[in-house]
Design a protein that fits this description.
Length: about 300
């Protein structure tokens, strides 16, 4: 949250140069507070796990947040009961007349397919187009990030020789950027995907800012220059045990998966992994909610 200071306080300029978030009294008096309305398009197969992971992060700020869960109408998940979807989810047709302060689009287990082959792709396109005028800022995760880069910015994905799975080291390209404010110069984060995007294409795109990448895992955090779209190619929201569960699932299916990199102690899958990315996860979600949603959204949508 910002610190409120008197107008023209001399040290204010020094604070701004250091990228300390300050707000002068005049602006503070005119800024009313209301709950933020966040909509989550949950495309994950295990929806309740994704719900818990995301709500845990959205609930760890001083802001009051109202949540709406969105499900695709053109495809019904096989891993969740219809009663759960009926009770807690809505469809795009039911909310497209509304406006939201923020939106989250999750990953989905369809990344090996061409975007146009995904049976709900046209619905996804309609939702992403709608978000440009009806949502202040949208946070896209994993496949959701690749979908946004493709739909909004024309950057496609390519299949990797082996699944990118593990907890990789990343660097921050611009530590003064609001989204990564407070990040360490080097930090770790989980990835779990079969595809990637070109770091050269992201860097060359005039409407995008590459904020973080990994020498091994590639592009990680990308922001549009207008802050409308934030793309996270990994899974900062994952719990400590999530990659282990995926590894066990793929092993049971006979897929002969590689052991997730830099994840299990001593690379031993029999040992319990620890969460080494939790602090940066909370920081990223807090920064997004504060700087890209709360500080940017109108008090009343017209």
């Amino acid at each position: 949250m910002p610190i409120n200071i008197p107008k023209n306080l001399p040290v204010g300029e020094h604070l701004r140069k250091e990228k300390i978030f300050v707000m002068e009294e005049e602006r503070a008096r005119t800024q009313e507070i209301r709950p933020l309305n966040i909509i989550i398009l949950n495309l994950m197969p295990e929806k309740e796990k994704a719900e818990l992971q995301l709500l845990r992060l959205l609930g760890n700020t001083p802001l009051q947040v109202n949540i709406t869960f969105l499900n695709t109408a053109t495809y019904t998940s096989k891993n969740i009961s219809k009663s759960h979807l009926d009770a807690f989810y809505t469809t795009f047709d039911e909310i497209k007349h509304k406006r939201y302060d923020g939106m989250i689009i999750t990953g989905a287990p369809v990344e090996k397919m061409a975007f146009e082959e995904v049976n709900y792709w046209k619905e996804m396109q309609a939702i992403m187009d709608w978000s440009e005028t009806n949502v202040t800022s949208t946070l896209h995760i994993c496949w959701g990030a690749q979908a946004a880069l493709y739909h909004h910015f024309g950057i496609g994905k390519f299949e990797l020789p082996h699944k990118c799975s593990g907890v990789y080291s990343h660097v921050v390209t611009d530590c003064t950027y609001d989204l990564v404010r407070g990040f360490s110069d080097i930090f770790v984060a989980p990835h779990s995907r079969y595809t990637s995007v070109s770091i050269e294409e992201v860097r060359a795109h005039q409407d995008l800012k590459l904020l973080s990448y990994s020498d091994e895992a590639g592009v990680f955090i990308v922001a549009s220059r207008d802050s409308k779209n934030i793309m996270i190619t990994g899974h900062l929201e994952y719990d400590a045990h999530t990659l282990a569960e995926e590894y066990e699932r793929d092993s049971e299916k006979g897929l002969n998966p590689d052991v997730p990199a830099y994840y299990f102690p001593n690379d031993d899958p029999t040992k319990k992994p620890v969460n080494t990315w939790r602090a940066h996860t909370h920081l990223l979600f807090s920064n997004w909610l504060n700087y890209y949603v709360y500080q940017a959204t109108p008090y009343e949508w017209e």
